Amino acid sequence: MRTTHRTISIQRLLCLLLLCPTLFLGCSSYIDLSSSQHHVIQGNYEKAYQNLQGQAPSLLKAQGPIIVNYDLGLLARLNKNYTESNFLLSESERLIREAYTQSVAANLASYVLNDNTKAYQGEEYEDIYLNLFKALNFIALGEQESALVELNRSMEKQAFLKQKYEQYSKQAREYASQQGLGSIATESYASSFSTSALINYLAYLVAQSLGEESSSYFAKEQVKHAFSSQPQLYRFALPSSLEQKEPEPGKERLHLISFNGQAPLKQERWEYVYLGPTNQAKIAYPVLVGRISNVQSIQVKANGQTQATLQKIESMSAVAIDTFRSKSQLTKTKAVLRAMSKAVGIAIYDSVIQQDDKLTAAEELLGLIFRVAQDVSERADVRSTHFLPSEAWVGSIDLEPGLYDIEFSFLNATGGVLHTMVLPNQAVKQGTLNLSEAYYAL
Predict the structure, then answer these.
(1) Per-residue pLDDT tens for 228-264?
(2) Which residue among 58, 207, 299, 433 has the highest number of C-beta atoms inside a 10 angstrom radius?
């Protein structure tokens, strides 16, 4: 009878090992994209896109199709291949949507597996800003109605954020209850972000150009609401270009938008948690760490004459860090649940060996695996897209209809020029949305 009980216990231990599959899997998702990033910094976007295309198979294997399509989509638009960019970004968006649908319906046990064992599902800030860049692509293609659809879609995603994290927290609590792990704290970080000033600002411009007065007014008020209700994220003045008089007779308005910097890096953070008086476990979870940009102001010239100084409208890095903090806290909760499950496995093993002093080699190996798995199998998922910018700036200048060379100068704190980007033959037309866009990666 003792042998039968012992066999059943060992079988249960083997089942519990399924909770730590990363012990046996390669967990490195790193891939060196420094060559493509170097070309982006140099402003050689065609070379950057071609280089990344060559690395796409390796990137796909290491980090998944969402990242491959997103990265190629961002580089394609910098290379002014707007149709291809929208195709790639749309594919990434579809995969993000499918991944979320599957995660909600997934078995609870799979929910607490280490995220490195699952296909990358995308982050909320990546999903929100994806539609922004699709909208800018449509504007460049002269398809303003489609641009407004994309901006409205992004706003819907923003409104859905709180509900998504409540669903994740509910899953964690249900899993802990079903596995007999007791109650577990699943209080997530209360995100400050709810409304993007940048996306609403662009929606305001597009709706205004289409003559949709109610939509334009609503988006404009939402820009103001974003600044007033989220002071932690908008630590700068509301852009004056939001409240401008109509251009003088004979002139048209050229709207300006510029991006700079690079999105935060996802890094692994380690902590020890105490599971009992004599039992502690190492857990790992991801955090976003911002990258500093030296750009402090942006000046714009039209045909060599200084016309405007742009104003910051959004720290995309601040939004990314804020929205991801909720995900980071929930990932930490999942890591604690895994540690508790492993602790249960060790307790079962210790109970088994007390029944008989004679252990087989396989049983000794099993005990070693459980103890090593507490630390070795924990690695944070640090996958993310690679080419999102950090900050966004806006402004406008009034010009007579015609063609202009528009020069963007990115300045540091002392007024020194870090980078200059010239957009030749920018058309300023009557009766349409005139928009020029620039980017500097540092």
Answers:
(1) 999 999 999 999 999 989 999 999 999 999 999 999 9
(2) 207
Q: Which amino acid, one-letter code, is at 142? A: G
Give the up-direction half-sphere exposure of residue 238: CA atoms within 13 A in the CB hemisphere.
Answer: 18
Centre a 10 Å sphere on the Cβ of residue 379 and count the other Cβ atoms it contains.
19
Nearest CA to 281 out of 371, 213, 214, 166 is that of 371
Structure tokens at 332: 């930490």
Which two structure tokens, joined as six digits, stand for 87? 């195709």
> Would you mind telling me the total number of residues written for the chain in this entry?
442
Mean pLDDT of all residues belonging to the chain: 84
Q: What does the DSSP assignment read for 207-246?
A: HHHTT-HHHHHHHHHHHHHHHHH-TTT--SPPPGGGS-PP
Q: What is the tens place of the pLDDT at every residue in 319-362?
A: 999 999 888 887 787 777 777 766 655 444 445 445 555 556 55
Nearest to 433 by CA among 213, 256, 238, 302: 256
Query: pLDDT tens digit string along 298-324?
Result: 999 999 987 899 999 999 999 999 999
Count of H-run helices and E-run strands, the chain = 12, 10
- Give dist(CA 137, CA 146) in Å, integer: 10
Q: What is the DSSP string of 95-155?
A: HHHHHHHHHHHS-HHHHTS-GGGS-----HHHHHHHHHHHHHHHHHTT-HHHHHHHHHHHH
Q: Which two tokens stand for residue 321?
A: 């860090």
| pTM score | 0.84
Q: Answer whether residue 199 shows pLDDT above 70.
A: yes
Distance CA 306, CA 308 (A): 6
Site of tokens 């998702």: 29
pLDDT at residue number 22: 44
Phi, psi of 322 (to 5 degrees): -65, -50
**Buried-state track 213-233, b at ≥16 Cβ within 10 A, e below 16:** eebbeebbebbeebbeebeeb
* Residue in this structure with the two tokens 């065609």, named with its chain if needed: 46
Better-scored residue on pLDDT, 248 or 17: 248
Given its phi and psi angles, is residue 431 left (phi above 0), alpha (psi -120 to 50 degrees) or beta?
A: left
